[in-house]
Design a protein that fits this description.
6-stranded parallel sheet, 11 helices, 4-stranded antiparallel sheet, TIM Barrel, 44% helix
């Protein structure tokens, strides 16, 4: 292992030397601070997730929480209006970010939003994860460029596409980074490096540090993200509420807590999105022992089915 800063944070396999622009001493200290602060709360929510799943497999069921009925039934609270560049999101395109040509073409496509997907669209090798961070940093700076083998140059054309970064889920470790001897959270590595390098510049150019939060199963996981956002903004001296996050409702448990998820994120909430395939997978997983929940061939699982329509209509009503 190659030590990059204090003896408590290591980057494996000379990773810091390969990406010195990503792993500055200051950025490494920030990642270490994030992971130290939130490693134990993260383990708590993962333990709670496992407990809930075990309860349901033993005959339990999903239901709206009685303890949070006050949030669902209170018509007066609202999250803040979205930032100017997130008001119109009719066209969002998504791609991985490790390929410079793909990043440039995505930002030149004139969509309202480009989702830099560091999760499902990316094979999470160390090179891919760190090349994505380098490309995002250069894209936000405006000087990312690429010369293909045929001599064609690719550069940004000065569009106004908003960038939303989708980090990996809470359940995943980043084994190439160890903090105090333990693998760091992949969520915190993905979020932290982008936030550290790009948040101030995004705010200066009239945008902001925007995120898609995947794989949440309940509002406690959203509350943990909100705590991370507050800690990160305070660390960087950026006003709270600068971060805005959209939550992918792609687990049936989260579908029962949509109001609570928005409430937990508070000033950092930017909306909800239906994540169809992971939502279907969560149903297959959570009800795998129930013969009355056998699903048909995947091609027949359209959004017009009653249980899928109910989920998306509830999402719209909630927002």
């Amino acid at each position: 292992m190659a030590k990059t800063t204090r003896a408590t944070c290591f980057i494996e396999s000379d990773g810091a030397e390969l990406f010195p622009d990503v792993w500055s001493v200051e950025a490494t200290d920030f990642i270490a601070a994030l992971d130290r602060e939130f490693s134990q709360p993260r383990q708590h929510i993962l333990h709670y997730r496992k407990e809930c799943s075990g309860h349901r497999l033993n005959g339990g069921h999903f239901e709206f929480l009685a303890s949070t009925a006050g949030i669902r039934n209170d018509p007066d609270w609202r999250v803040p209006a979205p930032p100017q560049d997130l008001i119109d999101r009719r066209v969002e395109i998504a791609s991985p970010a490790e390929n410079r040509k793909v990043v440039i073409n995505a930002l030149n496509a004139r969509a309202q939003v480009w989702v830099a997907d560091l999760e499902d669209a990316m094979s999470p090798t160390w090179h891919n994860a760190m090349a994505s961070q380098r490309n995002l940093r250069e894209a936000v700076m405006g000087d990312i460029a690429y010369l293909d083998p045929r001599g064609k140059h690719y550069r940004l054309e000065g569009g106004t596409t908003a960038i939303i970064v989708r980090p990996r889920g809470w359940h995943l470790p980043e084994r190439h980074v160890t903090v105090d001897g333990q693998a760091a959270s992949a969520s915190l590595v993905d979020f932290g490096l982008y936030f550290f390098h790009c948040a101030r510049r995004q705010l200066a150019r009239g945008s902001g540090p925007y995120f898609y939060l995947p794989k949440l199963e309940n509002h406690l996981e959203a509350k943990l993200w909100n705590d991370v956002f507050e800690f990160a903004q305070d660390w960087m001296g950026i006003p709270r509420g600068s971060i805005r996050a959209t939550v992918l409702i792609e687990h049936i448990g989260a579908a029962y807590e949509m109001d609570e998820i928005l409430h937990a994120l508070g000033p950092h909430a930017a909306g909800l999105t239906a994540g169809r395939w992971d939502y279907l997978f969560s149903i297959a997983k959570e009800f795998r022992n129930r013969p009355d929940f056998v699903l048909p061939d995947r091609a027949e699982l359209t959004m017009g089915l009653p249980f899928m329509r109910a989920y998306t209509e509830l999402l719209v009503r909630t927002c």
